[in-house]
């Protein structure tokens, strides 16, 4: 998605700083924190706000239905150094996800998740 990975990193750090400055005084909604960097519907901004409020700086995240890795809900955390596990049943999408995950701490798995194999 980013042609200039360093620019993406700079913009991401700016977004994290902005999320840390604001507070969750309005407990009715997180909608005001929605921002799409790699997600479709603003999940990136909400995730950044939540992890900053909790005080988590590193962790591990699993995304089932990760698609190509260009647009998903966990890439923003992977870009910040989190370990990520991306799973998708579509082998074509997974091959592209592997390319995006190469420079990140991401394990990419081509697997259909069902109730029988989820545990």
Description:
The protein has helices at residues 5-21, 43-54, 75-79, 91-101, and strands spanning 60-64, 83-88, 106-110. It is α/β, with parallel strands linked by helices and 119 residues long. The protein has one domain (5-22, 30-110). It has a three-stranded parallel β-sheet. The longest helix has 17 residues, at 5-21. It is elongated, with a radius of gyration of 15 Å. It starts with a helix and ends in a 9-residue tail after the last strand. Mean pLDDT is 83; it is low at 1-5.
**Number of separate strands:** 3
The percent range for strand residues is 5-15%
Q: Roughly what is the average pLDDT, rounded to an integer?
A: 83
Task: Please report the number of helical segments.
Answer: 4
Low-confidence stretches: 1-5
Helix content: 25-40%
Provide the domain count.
1
Radius of gyration: 15 Å
Class based on secondary structure composition and strand pairing:
alpha/beta
Question: How does the overall form come out from the CA principal axes?
Answer: elongated
Distance from first to last alpha carbon: 32 Å
- With strands numbered from the N-terminus, the spatial order across the biggest sheet is 1-2-3
SSE pattern, N- to C-terminal: HHEHEHE
Largest sheet: 3 strands, parallel
């Amino acid at each position: 998605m980013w042609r200039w990975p360093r620019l993406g990193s700079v913009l991401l750090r700016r977004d994290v700083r902005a999320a840390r400055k604001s507070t969750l005084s309005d407990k009715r909604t997180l909608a005001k924190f929605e921002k799409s960097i790699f997600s479709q519907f603003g999940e990136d901004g909400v995730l950044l706000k939540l992890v900053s409020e909790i005080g988590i700086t590193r962790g591990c995240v699993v995304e089932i239905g990760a698609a190509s890795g260009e647009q998903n809900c966990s890439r923003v955390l992977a870009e910040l150094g989190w370990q990520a596990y991306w799973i998708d049943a579509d082998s074509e999408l997974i091959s592209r996800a592997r390319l995006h995950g190469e420079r990140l701490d991401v394990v990419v798995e081509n697997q259909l998740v069902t109730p029988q194999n989820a545990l």
